[in-house]
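Input structure tokens:
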């Protein structure tokens, strides 16, 4: 049976003037219109295709890759609002519906929202919801301190940034520990700082201690190689300037400089520092 809302690997049963029919097993044969059919396609060949319902509620296939698939979280733009709800651009000809009862706040054309893609069991269609709370924190938070996790930035709060952790939980990045620009929908790696007794999760974008230095050192060396081996920042530079250039705290910057000095990779100058083999 074809997995609706996902990319499937299906066999080409036959090729006709209007396209290729793919074997959807219990779902029956699914049309892949000619405009999506690779020139090299042959009957009997396996083909990767995304399966969804078209505007006439027929299962259809496409080789185009949507911006999100079933069960994904995605930051998508509203392109239309009508009596059914809001419609999001997810990269396919038929826009993605967010019914009014699935909108946390009334959606507006031209704005983007973080949503969860789900399958409506009444209509069998793929739809989206901005009521994210009902999809998160359902599972117990079992993380180790320092564990690396995948994050999706959600919203800005008075304390910092709410983020989705491993597609399962809410977590929080505190303002005073964020040294780079973050935006809603951004995906990046982070680390578990703490799991509280109430299950709430504190996050951080860099590892603590020596791990933080090891994470930043390659970026600093890359910067030096791209700037003729020289950097004008030093221990008297302001934290804001260091944050603007490197996206790290002054403490991490100074610790990394000290570590690279011990390794003999850089040398200090009155105006900054440089790679030791650069003159």
């Amino acid at each position: 049976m074809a997995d609706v809302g996902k990319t499937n690997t299906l066999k080409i049963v036959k090729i006709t003037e209007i396209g290729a029919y793919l074997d959807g097993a219990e779902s029956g044969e699914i049309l892949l219109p000619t405009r999506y059919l690779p020139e090299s396609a042959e009957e009997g060949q396996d083909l990767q295709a995304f399966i969804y319902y078209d505007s006439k509620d027929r299962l259809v296939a496409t080789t185009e890759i949507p911006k999100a698939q079933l069960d994904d979280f995605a930051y998508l733009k509203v392109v239309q609002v009508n009596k059914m709800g809001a419609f999001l651009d997810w990269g396919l000809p038929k826009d993605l519906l967010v019914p009014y009862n699935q909108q946390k706040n009334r959606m507006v054309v031209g704005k983007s929202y973080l949503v969860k893609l789900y399958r409506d069991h009444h209509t069998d269609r793929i739809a989206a919801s901005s009521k994210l709370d009902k999809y998160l924190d359902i599972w117990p938070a079992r993380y180790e301190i320092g564990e690396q996790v995948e994050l999706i930035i959600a919203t800005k709060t008075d304390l910092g940034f709410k983020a989705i952790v491993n597609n399962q939980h809410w977590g929080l990045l505190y303002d005073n520990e964020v040294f780079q620009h973050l935006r809603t929908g951004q995906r990046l790696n982070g680390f578990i700082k703490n799991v509280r007794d109430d299950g709430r999760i504190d996050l951080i974008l860099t590892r603590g201690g020596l791990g933080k230095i090891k994470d930043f050192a390659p970026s600093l060396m890359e910067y030096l190689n791209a700037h003729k081996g020289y950097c004008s920042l030093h221990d008297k530079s302001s934290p804001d300037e260091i944050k603007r250039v490197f996206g790290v705290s002054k403490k991490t910057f100074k610790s990394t400089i000290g570590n690279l000095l011990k390794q003999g990779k850089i040398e200090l100058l009155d105006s900054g520092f440089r790679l030791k083999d650069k003159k």
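The radius of gyration is 25 Å. The mean pLDDT is 92.
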